[in-house]
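User: Structure please.
Assistant: Input sequence and predicted structure:
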Amino acid sequence: MSSSPLLIEHVLNSIGAVDEMTPIVIDVASGMGKWGFLIKLHIRDCYLIGLDINREYVKKTKNIYDDVILADACHLPIKNFCVDVSLACEIIEHLDKAEGLKMLNELFRITKKRVIITTPADKRYFVGKKAKDIGHKTMWNPNDFRKFGFKVRGVGCRFHRKGKIMALLRHFILKPLSYVLPEMAELIIAIKEQRK
């Protein structure tokens, strides 16, 4: 999970805006349950499912989620259109393109209202030893998501030049601009509205 407070706010607002009395939300690749904890803290009225392929994570997060499932993100053991919101935060970059497409299709299949994906958009996350160490395989750009009907927003700014002037420019101009021009963002959030 990214530590960017702006990303957290965007995700929580996107889940909270679903017009259901008690939405069913699935956190795909839930890991240690950080998103689950934040969702339960800020959106009290939802039924939250955590899904992960790691048995230890599933065991450790039973007290965070209303339900937990041990499964692969590319093969979701869930009926068609039975969750309101699907959330896959910073997982798609750990899959190759074919697996990423499978995961997206699975999310589209199970979701009634909204699919939310977050991923790094800065090339620094995908080159060199650091990328290999953290398991990043493929970079998804905003147009990759737009092809599937996602609305894409940027968070942060990928330009990291040093100096006071650049820091001011980055903070007050480039970061806000990246929201509408996610091609210059450090992280992206892609939201697809499903059937009405």
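The first strand starts at residue 24 and ends at 28.
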